[in-house]
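User: Run a structure prediction on this.
Assistant: Running it now.
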Amino acid sequence: MVMVSKMLYATDLSPYSKTVAEYARDLKKLGVEEVGIIYVIDTIRFEGASGGFDISAYVAKELEKAREEYPKLAATFESAGIKVKTIEPPAGDPAAQILKYSKDYDFIGVASHGYGVTRGILMGSTSEIVVKKAKKPVLVFKFAFKDPSGKLQDIVTRTSVEDVVFGGPLNFVKCHECLFQRNLVAYDFSELAEAALEYAIYATKKFEGEIHVVYVDGKRSLSEIEDRLKGLNYTLHERKGSVTEEIIKVKNHVDATSIFIGAHRGKGWKAIVGSVTEYVVRHSSVPVFVIRK
């Protein structure tokens, strides 16, 4: 069953992260009625620090920053007709706190910085852990930026922070005008793939958009699921080759605006996302809805 009425929006208050609010109207159309905004004051980085660092003063400063930024973020969501709950910023491990508060929400929204692919960095460490450990679906937002000439560039194609700075602040923008206009589903007939398809069908109906289902090197035929797609503008893509590479190729070919994919949740803090899901989240230049059950 698709449940998307309540989203926990985890932000680090960076310009990149705050761009998530630009999707407010799309989220409202999807069915989001309430957004919980949470900023966690990261004190883990200072554990064991010496030199008389004043943690209390740091926390107080971060609280002040959050209280200044929260109303701006809230106003954007509220302008789209979404109710907002601002969560008093907790201090501690950001990922752990986000996962703790997510129990009261249907899914989590996080921003992926996307850069650093060649260095093996998936996202910021907080977002990476959230994607790997969440018990709820996670919508990983991706963005583009405008270079000095005004041309859009995908963050995911860059190799480091320095590569994208150009000597000044970046102008982050949505990858596409509409988040769920062309939905790509990575499908393999598993229970989690069925859940991902269910979410994608729901979004496609809400936006009267397209749905593309890709199945790679399978022994079954996607014709088996055509009955579920009746009435929708759908295309079935049966491919041979590398599962991960073919998913991204199809995404590029159809200019997908979002990807839906299922992921198993491992046990313990050292568990990792399945390799296909991890690759797709790393290499996609558009938002990825990671579905768990």
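The chain is about 35% helix and 25% strand.
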